[in-house]
Amino acid sequence: MPKVLIVDDDPEIRETMASLLARENIAHDLAGDLASTREALEQDHHDLILLDVALPDGNGLDLLPEIKARSNAPEVIILTGRGDAQGAELAIERGVWDYLLKPSSTKEIKLSINRALKYREQKDRTRTKALDLSGVVGSSPAMQACYDLVARAAASESNVLITGETGVGKELMARTIHANSSRAENPFVVVDCAGMTDTLVESTLFGHRKGAFTGAVADQPGLISQAHQGTLFLDELGELPFSIQKSLLRVLQERKYRPVGENRELVSDFRLIAATNRDLESMVQAGTFRTDLYFRIKTIDLHLPPLRERKPDIGPLAMHFMEAVQKKYLMADKGFGADFLETLKAYSWPGNVRELGNAIEQAMLAGISETSLYAMHLPKEIRIQVAKAKVKNTSGPLDPAGGPACLYQGSESEEHVLPKFRKYRQDCEKSYLESLLVNCSGDISSMLKTSGLSRSYFYALLKKYNLD
To answer: How far apart are CA 223 and CA 250, in angstroms?
Structure first.
């Protein structure tokens, strides 16, 4: 039985909505502010939230990211008396089902509720079909939302556009959709749009006949032909030459194509999945990507989050890559030191999952004779960035000479509780050493020359403050 959470600071509105749901035999809970809404969401499962915008302790729209980040997140209908165009746009972008203004008719509200619950029921049925997620690692809320779309895409024949930064795993997710679809036993054909020149792209996609051009010594089937009854994956779609986009659009519309040098059309029954790290919408506005092709491809839009937005997955991903490297090099099992995972989670991962995999392999090879991996085994550039961020977040301001400023400055009128001199000196020593490590990029000779310290005393200080 579905359950609805009514969130509104007006008791009369809450009672009206509760009465409407009771007549429909729909269970419900009530909340009057953001705090009680969070509490209700923690205590029970809800399929739908009727959410007001202006609440006593904040804006209801600010709660949407929290709601959508939940596992099996409920649908949301905004019901507000302070509607505005910008708020409506923000709500739709954040995935709400509907945006209604008070006063709306009971009929309109009831219709929206029933449609949202029916959609929810259909989505739950799709979710109950077990997905084969072989090779896919991640159970964070951000990835759970992606899996819902993957299940929906796998159950359909619609075109899919997968977007996300470089290295987030777009091809892996495309293969997962294919593996869970009715075409799983047929070919999965990859087209690297970034690796094709204008002169070769048409021949590569559509194929050619013998003698069609210089060098065409035999008939050659194209990738579209090879994808017959399977899936055609266009990787880096944003790099596809503008000159070929019109021809591709016609193929997508009719599933017919003409090889170079052929005088008749051929048919290919393929399912299209495309991926790009570029902003196609901006390219459409700039006139470098066809509007009609963009909307033809974007039937299902799956955006994969960057690794920095799914930090709970970093540990499991690191274990996954470590097991793969152990198998590749026939290594013994290794453990992780606490500082190893801390460093992984503190890094921003601009190269995303691909960069993490490469970093784990480098760390495994650097610590090949060790039983555990520590931060020191990670690539130097990762450790440097983490150290810089740590210094920036924990150190006080620097004086003009570049050293740490006094941590306890202030005007004479301010009250200060000064630390013991020994603690103050230790704080400054540690801050100086951290800045030294970053500024000299870990180079021992440079650090000794800059600081004027002897090698033995420098190492003693590093050990004293537990610094690498």
So the answer is: 16
